[in-house]
Structures are given as C-alpha cells and as structure tokens.
Amino acid sequence: MNRLLTFWGGQASHHAHQVDTLFLGLAALAVLLSAPVFILIPWFAVKYRRGKPADRTHAANRSVWLEVSWAAIPFLATLAFYVWSTRLYIDLYQPPAEALAINAVGKQWMWKFQHPGGQAEINELHVPAGRPVVVTLASQDVIHSLFVPALRLKQDVVPGRYTRLWFTADTPGSYALVCAQFCGADHAVMGGRLVVQTPADYARWLEGMGTDGSLAAQGAVLFRTRGCSGCHGAASTVHAPPLEGLYGRPVPLADGSVVTADDQYLRDSILLPQAQVAAGYPAIMPTFQNVLGEEDVLKLVAYIKSLANAPPPTKDHDDGGSP
C-alpha cells in the first residue's frame, strides 16, 4: 500500500493506515460500480449501431432477483463503508483519558507548543511513540488549521475557542506539519515538524529542555502576579467563587443555566467574565482580554485544572465575582 501511496508520504500511525485502507477500498468500490457502465456503453453502441443487424426485441423473461441484486448489493456495500468511516470519525473525538496533554497556539506565522512539564518549542512538536497524545489548539489571531499528512489528520484552529486533536504516533521519525488554512501573507512558511521519538529518547529530550517549572506552576505564578489571588485566593478579603475542586464540576449560572467547568469555560471566564456569571456572585471580575495572550491563558487553565482534586476552602465566600 505504501508503494501505491508514496505521493501521500509515510504512515506514522495506525489511524493513517486505516484512512488509507478506507480510501483505497472506496476507490475500488467506485471502480466496480462504474466500470460496467463505461464498458457496456461502447459495447452496446457498436452492437446496436444504425444499420447493424441485431435483435432489438425485449427479453421475454425477466429476473426479479437480478434486478433487486444490482440495487441491493451496491447499497449494502456503500452502507458498510458509511459505518466504517463513521467509526473512524467518532474515534477522532474520543481521546483516551491517559493521553499526554499538549497545548498548541497558532499565530501568524508559527506554531507554539507547550508540554505539561513546561517545555516549550516553536514549529516542532516532540512526542513519544506508542503513547496517545491530545493537543489542545488555540489561535492568537486568525483561523489556522494544523495538518499532519503522515497522521492523515487536520484540525481547524479557531479564534475564541479551543479545538482538540489526538493521535498515537507509532513510527519514530520526523514528519511535516503545516497550516492548511490561508492565514495571511506568510501562510506558505507556517510549518514545522512532528518529531516522534522512542519513549527513552523523549524522556531525555524533556530533561534537556530548559523550563521555568511545569505548565501548572507557571500558571500559579501568573495567578499571583496578575492579581487573581486577590479575589480567588484563600487569604483574600474580597472573595470570588473558589477554584479548588472547580474543574470538571457543574457550575450554576446567574441566568439559571448550568455549565460544566471545562477548558473552554475557564478560558471564557478569564477573557469574557461577564458572559457566564456564577450564581450568587456579583459580576465584578475585570476582563483580561487584550491583556493575556493565549499561551498565558492556557497556563492559567492548567493551574486551575491542577486544583481539581484540592479540597475547597472552609471559610465562607460571601462576596466576589465571576470565576
């Protein structure tokens, strides 16, 4: 199969192999369904051309089973491909719980990646082979699209929302990654490499990268330096909704609705605090839009997520603002 599809590049994952098999199978089915038509048209055109002595009377006997079969068999075959492709599509949105979480920010005209340990890289993404990886994508400016041909995966990166892409790269090597959405004058140079390493090599790469602490630890520093602890900290005098144990929990809102405190909710609460105000708290939190970049917001989100299993403060929270 690789020889037939060399113009696509190598296959770096089992998913890529499945996509290629699906494509070739669907192409073969299309040929099998259409070839008889294109073959019989010239044959009948020659056999029944004007002046040609040929029997043009209709057959006396008709086979109902034959007529049903040439409708039912293609239908069942295409239905099988529909089920197959649907399973592959659904799998794209069900990353394993133990997947390695990496953040990515697309901006004109580069990709910036953040690892959980705080390691950061530009236009290169190092991952361990054989381990599921889920990438949370954010855009700093315009619409981008992260495309890794060797994985047969592409995910749009939209301003104002998080999107996710997950994969398990099985074959160590270096593979191209590009932006597949026109994003401005230097769109053509917005690319990089996906570097798949053995687990041992990946561990050594992490150790060799300089870092100022884990992503959550860097978020904790931002939490203090940006004044967030002045309202959300346990020792603050003006209390906002507690952040300990918040992530993943349902949050009642002032308008009567209930949302889940996921990554998108945390991001919106930082940049658009008046959009979803927690029930029982006045809307006094200032916006950090145009103050924090997407990279800093992701660090703050990582810090709040690290508090998911922390016990909530015992003191009452009588005043405050949006989470």
Automatic annotation (TrEMBL):
An MF annotation (GO) of this entry: cytochrome-c oxidase activity
InterPro entries the record matches: CcO_II (IPR045187), CcO_II-like_C (IPR002429), Copper_CuA (IPR001505), Cupredoxin (IPR008972), Cyt_c-like_dom (IPR009056), Cyt_c-like_dom_sf (IPR036909), Cyt_c_oxidase_su2 (IPR014222), Cyt_c_oxidase_su2_TM_sf (IPR036257)
Keyword Metal-binding (UniProt): yes
GO annotation, biological process: ATP synthesis coupled electron transport
Primary residence: membrane
Catalytic activity reported: 4 Fe(II)-[cytochrome c] + O2 + 8 H(+)(in) = 4 Fe(III)-[cytochrome c] + 2 H2O + 4 H(+)(out)
Ranges for domain Cytochrome c: 214-308
Pfam families, sorted: COX2, Cytochrom_C
Key words, A-Z: Copper, Electron transport, Heme, Iron, Membrane, Metal-binding, Respiratory chain, Translocase, Transmembrane, Transmembrane helix, Transport
EC number: 7.1.1.9
Domain Cytochrome oxidase subunit II copper A binding, residue spans: 97-208
GO cellular component, one term: membrane
Assigned protein family: Belongs to the cytochrome c oxidase subunit 2 family.
Stated name of the protein: cytochrome-c oxidase
